[in-house]
């Protein structure tokens, strides 16, 4: 404890902090998948200008993009129990608020945020497609669904993949705030270890290394995926 900085402590803490990695990755993957699915629906609603729904999506986007993630986490953490109690009182149910894990509160907040950002990424990608290609597909007898699946989505993926990569990198770093509502992820583990040993700096050095490595892996994965999609797109155009 007399050492100002203990290098050995970093290697000692690393395996213990890595125990929180599945929670971090779980939050990231589930929030990303749900965000893309819900965001796709919102993007289509805005592009097609669906009455009421498109206006709701615009207000939703404005609100989420204007509120810090930490506030969304607290709104979820304190708001969902209030909602469940209200349901219990209204319908006479007996849902136990205390049984809801902190992970669920965090997941709701991240999905809410991701849905907003992913919808904008998808909308921009879909709008970047040349409308002549869509019209040509419809002139060949394709339905709206067939045109979307065979023409719009493949081309939109080429545009969206780099931005998806940046967004998932931001998301995995953003999950570090989940420990503020008692989620024991990487940051949660680091805080616990730092509190026990009073070696906060060494614990957070470990945390920084883990996040850094995760972001590097994500970067390489999306670069590979981008090349794969671009190659397939060029090949299909060449065959045509």
From TrEMBL:
CDD domains: TM_PBP2
One GO molecular-function entry: transmembrane transporter activity
Principal subcellular localisation of the protein: membrane
Keywords: Amino-acid transport, Cell membrane, Membrane, Transmembrane, Transmembrane helix, Transport
Localization annotation: Cell membrane
Transmembrane segments: 20-45, 57-80, 100-117, 200-225
Protein's UniProt name: Amino acid ABC transporter membrane protein (PAAT family)
GO cellular component, as recorded: ATP-binding cassette (ABC) transporter complex
Swiss-Prot/TrEMBL GO biological process terms: amino acid transport
PROSITE patterns: ABC_TM1
PANTHER family: L-CYSTINE TRANSPORT SYSTEM PERMEASE PROTEIN TCYL, MEMBRANE COMPONENT OF AMINO ACID ABC TRANSPORTER
Pfam families xrefs: BPD_transp_1
């Amino acid at each position: 404890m007399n050492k100002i900085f203990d290098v050995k402590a970093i290697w000692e803490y690393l395996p213990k902090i890595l125990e929180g990695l599945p929670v971090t990755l779980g939050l990231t993957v589930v929030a990303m998948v749900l965000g893309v699915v819900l965001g796709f629906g919102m993007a289509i609603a805005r592009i097609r200008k669906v009455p009421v729904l498109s206006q709701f999506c615009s207000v939703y986007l404005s609100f989420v993009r204007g509120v810090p993630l930490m506030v969304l986490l607290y709104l979820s953490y304190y708001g969902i129990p209030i909602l469940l109690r209200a349901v219990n009182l209204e319908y006479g149910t007996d849902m136990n608020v205390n049984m809801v894990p902190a992970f669920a509160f965090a997941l709701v907040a991240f999905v809410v945020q991701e849905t907003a950002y992913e919808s904008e990424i998808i909308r921009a990608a879909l709008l970047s497609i040349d409308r002549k290609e869509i019209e040509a597909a419809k002139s060949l007898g394709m339905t709206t669904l067939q045109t979307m699946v065979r023409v719009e989505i493949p081309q939109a993926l080429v545009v969206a993949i780099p931005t998806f990569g940046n967004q998932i990198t931001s998301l995995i770093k953003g999950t570090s705030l989940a420990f503020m509502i008692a989620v024991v992820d990487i940051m949660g583990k680091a805080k616990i270890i730092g509190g026990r040993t009073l070696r906060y700096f060494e614990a957070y050095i470990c945390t920084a290394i883990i996040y850094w490595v995760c972001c590097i892996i994500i970067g390489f994965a999306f670069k590979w995926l981008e090349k794969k999609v671009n190659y397939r797109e060029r090949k299909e155009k060449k065959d045509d």
